[in-house]
Fold these 3 entries.
Entry 1:
Amino acid sequence: QEESFAAVARQYSILGIKHILEGWDHLLFLICLMLVAGIGKKLWITITGFTIAHSITLALSALDVVRLPIPPVEAVIALSVVYLAVEIALQKKDSLTYRYPIAVSSSFGLLHGFGFAAVLSDIGLPQIEVVTSLLFFNVGVELGQIIFVLGILLLWLFIRKISFDKNLNSKFKFKRVTLEKSVAYFCGCLASFWMIERLYGFLL
């Protein structure tokens, strides 16, 4: 049966959304980026850098222009979460990560793109409408990413509304930092387990 543009676009958009929302390592990386960049303009600049970077490597890898072994890439993706979690836990606001989060998101975004490409390779590209499938898989990933980020922002605003006393600035700051560090420890511990597991899988 001949593949139509609309059918391929719809199918691969859904696959992209499904993949990002099921990819916990990518989601934890996004959460950490949000904690580093905050909820203002810097967040969207940081997310845009991540998007552009992983879109480039996704396309290059899917089209066989550049190829990297997937197991080490997956291990480094987990490491990217560990790195950000440590930065958040340390709370060094003058560090490179906090001052230029787009540099970190773009650098690690290149590796995340290879991870997305590995999933797309497992799914397979159609014989016709190859560019369409690649484009809309990426569109789906971005839509899923936006849905997730907006969901986390709404959750954060809700928690801040019900938990923080704005009349006590020191209390507000203490609770905010405590919450950020708690999330960082959770993300860092889980990502460390994944990293060790993935390293064990291809080194031993």
Entry 2:
Amino acid sequence: MLGWTFYVSVSNWLGTAANYSFAVLKWYELMMRLDRFWVDLGNNLKWLILGLVQTLSVAFFVAYLAEIGR
């Protein structure tokens, strides 16, 4: 499934009609030039870091409580 998604992402689609001609990395180049992409990437990284730190902190605390409660 991941391979198919990557294959479609490097295809030259226009609209909703399937066109599997190879477009190399045209869409990725376009995406990298957009300011909105970098803002979105930064926001996703912030959520990842904040969510990961909080989740791991709670998980370790609960595991600690479970261990000392034996």
Entry 3:
Amino acid sequence: INYPVVLGEDNDFYLTHTFQKVENSAGALFLDQATGTPFTDYNTIIHGHDMKNGSMFGKLDTFYRDTKTYTENPYFYVYTEGAAYKYLIFSYYVTDATSETYQLPASEEAYQNYKKYVTKQAVWKDVEGIPEVAPIVTLSTCYGNNYTEKRFVVHGILVDSR
């Protein structure tokens, strides 16, 4: 997955517009509109469509379909103008669009509760050796057929930045 990530005024515009603001059904990968400081907050959520042609987050659910995917690719990276971030994937699962998965914790206590929640929800998890407190990035895409309220999410925790 190699796309720019944008932040809009709401969580609707980039569902149907590219990062260049051109109308397109594939949309763009975008930060949740409630994001404070991306990639340094307790949780940063990136939304994107699960496109059948594999574009956007169309390959994300391969983690769900084939557990070998994780053993071959346990990390994902985010590059900004000022830094490169390396995240260890520690949890993934299917959830509802309105679940607690979409919380943005504002305190360390809320963060610890959130981390416990997403680990408990996981169909697959690897919590061995993950940092006690480090920013999480949640990758979120639709799951199932035609506008379902189900989502597939992948959680990564920051393990290195440069």
